[in-house]
Amino acid sequence: MLAKCKYNVNLLVAENLSRDLLEILQSHKANLCQKRQTFKISGSILNILLHIISNNQGKANFLRDNGTEILKSFCQDLTIKDRRGDRLLSRSWTILSKCRTPKLLPIADDFSPMQFDAPEVHWKKRSSVFKAQKRSDDELRASYDKFFIELQSLMGGNGTEESTPSLSSSVTELYDQLHTERVCGLYLFEDIALPDRLFLNDASGPEEFLHQKNCNIYREKLLKVLYNECKDNSRSSTNLNSFIHDNDEPSVDLDVVYDLDQLLDPSHSNVGFHSRGDSLQFESRFESGNLRKVIRLVHQEYNLILTPDVNTAKHHQWFYFSVKNMRSDQIYTFNIINYEKTNSQFNFGMQPVMFSQLEYEQRGLGWTRVGQDVIYYKNEFSKSMAAGSNYMTASFKIQFPHSTGDVCYLAYHFPYTYTRLLTHLEVLQCSKSQDTYLRIDSLNKTLNNHDVPLITITSNNDNARPLLERKLVVLTSRVHPGETNASFMMEGVLDQLVSDSQLASVLRSNFIFKLVPMLNVEGVINGCHRCGLTGDDLNRQWDKPHPILHPSVYHAKGILAYCHQILKTSHLPDKKQQADQPFLFCDFHGHSRKKSIFLYGCSGDESWLPSDSDRSTNSSHTENQNKGQQIKPSHLSSMGKCFVNALLELAEEQESTSVGERKLQNSLLNLDNRWRDQSFVIQVQKVHDHPVGPTESDLDLILSATTNSH
Question: Where in this chain does the entry annotate a coiled-coil region (predicted)?
Answer without folding.
Answer: none
